[in-house]
Amino acid sequence: MIVVIVIVMALLIHGCEVSQTNSSLKNYNADVDALITASDNNGAAMFSDLESGDLTSHTSGLQTKLNILANNARKQLAQAQSYSPPSAMSGAQSALVQVMQMREQGISQIAKHIPAAAQKKTSRDGVYDISVGTSLLFSSDVFYKTFVTPEIAKALNAAGIPIGGTTGAQINSGQIVTDLGWLQPTFIQEKIGARLSTAAANANNAAPGLHGEILNHVSVGTTQLSPTGTNTIPASPAPTFTVNVTDGGNFDEYQVGCTVSVKGLSDTGTTAIPVIRKHQTTNCSVTLPSPPTPGTYPVTVRVAKVPGETYLSDNAATYTVTFN
User: Fold this and answer.
1) 245 lies in a domain?
2) pTM listed for this prediction
3) Are residues 260 and 118 in the same domain?
4) Where in the chain does DSSP place strands (E)?
5) pLDDT, tens only, 21-55
């Protein structure tokens, strides 16, 4: 009788231990699920802020938003480090901490280099450094799916815990980078509105094929300038020339420069079209830096050559303009 009681007690104790272990495995998986969901949502907010159009107009405000998200990532890393998983999940835990470290580093890297990306002189390096941050985030996705989720599944399977379906344990399969375009500097430049110089913006866009811009016509106010006659426009305030341009190639072009020069004076105005899609027609507004001295002058309007462009005869026009 005593032997039977001992056996029954041993079975009960073993059953309790198994139940406790299974509960620990399920709880750890649930903790990881909640953490990854929160981290993915943090990343989604970051990408949304990057696309908000605040880069050049509100750089400090955008950086403040990103710093908050980077701080969220640091808290999420600390949360991952605080977990005490069952021994069967030790491999998953070690990999999870590395995933969260990459996410914290990635978002912090992006926030740090936003000011550089907003300045034309440093935007090329700034955008590249942001791409390093997005690459860290993508690496965290790869690491999570390569090491964390298989280790969790392995531990659950070994314990006989069903996975998936309506009643089984759910393993989070989400990811923080949902558009791989964010790994490419030119994609990042366009999304965040960085003011890359023409050469830098088009560095990856000199592919074989037709490239080129066409200067259609130029206006000042309601007056469209004639290339064959004398055009009279006010000298003050400093006039703004509206340059109508068509992309005549088969590629999108970025930061296409526009220049207006008054021969005989030191008045030269410049600006750029942030992006012009293939076959698209758009306007470029160029304001002279100061009111020109009254008189009649040749005024040359030029659209910058883009990489791969060979035909330049329709990129510029010269008008006779009387400023009065």
Assistant:
1) yes
2) 0.60
3) no
4) 213-220, 223-224, 230-233, 240-247, 253-262, 268-276, 281-287, 295-303, 316-323
5) 799 999 999 999 999 999 999 999 999 999 886 67
